[in-house]
Amino acid sequence: MDQEGRKFDLRQLECFCAVARLGSFTKAAEEVGVAQSSLSEHIAKLEAGLASVLFERLTRRIELTPAGEALVPRAQAMLQDAAALPHYLETVRTESGGVLRVGVIPSIMPYFLAPRLRDFVEKFPSIDLHLREAPTAELIKQIEEGIIDIAILSIPVEGNNLVMRELFREPIHLAVPDFHILASAEKVLLRRVSDERLLILKDGHCLRDQTLTICDRARARFAAQFEVDQFASIFELIRAGFGVSLVPEMARRGAAGCRLIPIEPKAMRRVGYVRLERRYVSRVMESFTGWLREASRDAGQ
């Protein structure tokens, strides 16, 4: 018989082990709770599936064949493993340890996530957290390809089979150097600074797209636009008086030497996380996303 035809199931092994232990089809049928005819059918199918005779049917008794004797310990081990599966899976589901690969955009990593990581590590020391910082487009691609498990970024985003959850919203401000003529203003119409150099991130960053959308809605047509690779470079250029930018509220902690001014019309950024849509969400993922929600509330975001 070819390998494709050698099939059996756990019920057949259960019946086999009962007969081997009790030495009786009648007693084995009572133990496993089936009719004797059904038990005999299970044994016959097992023998056919394994292409082996397992019992010698004698007049007053049954005996294991050499093949049957060889099968007994293996069959018992398989049944024990199968019985342990629910406990094993429950352990996996409730296990708090494991690896979690997290991607974060540059305008969130140093201001929101990094300052709070010590709290996460102390609360979940068994989670091996791997961090990647990259633009939005790259992080979405990595999620879809399974390179990372979750990304913290500005939502909404486009992608296939994604779950998005909002954590908080924050205002977008105009960032100018301390010595700027508008540095003391309580708020500013965006159109008033259209003659300034506008500093934005390069293509692929969600903050770039949001900045351009906000400017378009405010009908602020900036004469010059300069692109940079790193979000931190924006503040360096602002402090040098090279231009102005639109930055989120959380970036205030890195804005020494700059003034963040509320803009009119008001603009907000939605911060959240993105992961693949799956039927099963690991305990590690649940722990991290729960901590993210708590961190957002505790930070007063």
Describe this structure in words.
It contains ten helices and twelve strands. With 301 residues, it is an alpha/beta fold. The strands form three sheets. Strands 3, 4, 5, 6, 7, 10, 11 and 12 form an eight-stranded mixed beta sheet that branches. A two-stranded antiparallel sheet has the order 1-2.
Write the layout of secondary structure elements.
Blueprint: H1 10-22, H2 25-32, H3 36-50, E1 55-57, E2 62-64, H4 66-94, E3 98-104, H5 109-113, H6 117-123, E4 127-133, H7 136-144, E5 150-154, E6 162-177, E7 188-189, E8 197-201, H8 206-217, E9 224-228, H9 231-239, E10 245-248, E11 258-264, E12 268-276, H10 283-298
Parallel strand pairs: 3-4, 3-5, 7-11, 8-9
Antiparallel strand pairs: 1-2, 5-12, 6-10, 6-11, 6-12
Helix pairs in contact: 1-2, 1-3, 1-4, 2-3
Keywords:
301 residues; alpha/beta; 8-stranded mixed β-sheet; two-stranded antiparallel sheet; 10 helices; 41% helix; disordered N terminus
Structural category:
alpha/beta
Number of helices: 10
The shape is rod-shaped
Intertermini distance: 67 Å
Percent of residues in beta strands?
15-25%
What are the low-pLDDT stretches, counting only 5+ consecutive residues below 50?
1-5
Q: What number is the mean pLDDT?
A: 88
- Oligomeric description of these chains: single chain
**Radius of gyration, whole Å:** 32 Å
Number of strands: 12
